[in-house]
Design a protein that fits this description.
It contains nine helices and nine strands. It is α/β, with parallel strands linked by helices. A six-stranded parallel β-sheet has the order 3-5-6-7-8-9. A three-stranded mixed β-sheet has the order 1-2-4, with helices on both faces. Helix 7 links the parallel strand 6 and strand 7.
Length: 282
């Protein structure tokens, strides 16, 4: 429902939300492009996701309807994803609010109001910009926590280093984000590591033990299918580094929308096979 083949790179994660909320203009004049070039807060998009010209309101965004559409399609536990307020604020051009933090808070109010009505087993906020902007942590965590507090069941936050056209967009270090991660009132984290590398795993030893940890094992920016043996070795490395009780989830780095379904199916199959091999069930 969130995918538009005419602009697949960010539609499901950015444009789906920005095009529906009131206060955001999607038609751009020449002066708008000049404004965007002088204030490219997102740091990587060729065009702004939208011009914020008024107070952010729900508009036609209807996340409860999205949940009602998808929930009958599975009998398994369902995770419902939603782009977080920090990322949305970062990819918009602010022409209305005093500062970007105020913009993020009004986005958070809209998202919370809608997510409070969703009974999914897990609701995950996707934040793909904070890794490149650790200085945003104080206002970003305030906005993200406002949304998290409205989620009914399991709360998850996904953080990565961006994925635009199948390429990472941000440079950063997990060590700079540990205080931010500890400030989040979430049940678990879903973090990118397969593409980023595992050298920084030890810094997560300082993560609040009440926050369950998920580590990315599948590189979604590469068509090569990881072997089950590689997956098992990566799990073993994470367990040896952080302790068996620390690692709760293994998963792909991010979403798979850049890859062909045939590649995705094989990557997911080897993820399960590698997990089973590590656990001695292979």
């Amino acid at each position: 429902m969130r995918f538009d083949p005419s602009h697949p790179e960010t539609n499901g994660m950015v444009d789906y939300f920005a095009s529906r909320m009131d206060g955001i203009r999607k038609h751009f004049s020449l002066s708008d492009f000049d404004r965007f070039r002088s204030d490219r807060s997102s740091g990587y998009r060729l065009l702004t996701a939208g011009m914020v010209v008024g107070k952010i309101q729900d508009g036609t965004l209807n996340l409860p309807h999205d949940y009602e559409f998808v929930s009958p399609l599975t009998k398994s536990p369902l995770k419902f994803t939603c782009t977080g307020p920090h990322m949305l604020a970062r990819v918009l051009t602010n022409c209305f609010y005093k500062n970007i933090g105020d913009l993020a808070m009004d986005i958070a109010v809209v998202l919370r109001r809608q997510l409070e009505l969703i009974e999914a087993d897990t609701v995950q906020l996707d934040e793909a910009c904070i890794a490149g902007y650790p200085e945003d942590a104080p206002w970003a965590s305030e906005a993200i926590n406002l949304v998290l507090e409205g989620i009914l069941n399991q709360k998850a936050v996904h953080i990565c280093f961006g994925n635009y056209g199948g390429q990472p967009q941000l440079r950063g270090f997990w060590r700079d984000l540990v205080p931010f991660l500890n400030s989040l009132r979430t049940d678990h984290l879903v973090l990118e590591f397969a593409r980023h590398g595992y050298d920084e795993l030890p810094v997560l030893a300082d993560l609040n033990p009440s926050i369950h940890l998920g580590v990315g094992l599948i590189d979604i920016k590469d068509n090569e299918v990881e072997s089950a043996e590689l997956i098992a070795r990566r799990i073993e490395h994470a367990v040896k580094t952080l302790g068996e009780e620390r690692l709760r989830y293994v998963h792909p780095d991010c979403g798979f929308w850049m890859l062909q379904r045939s590649v995705v199916d094989r990557k997911m199959r080897t993820l399960v096979e590698g997990r089973n091999m590590f656990e001695g069930r292979g």
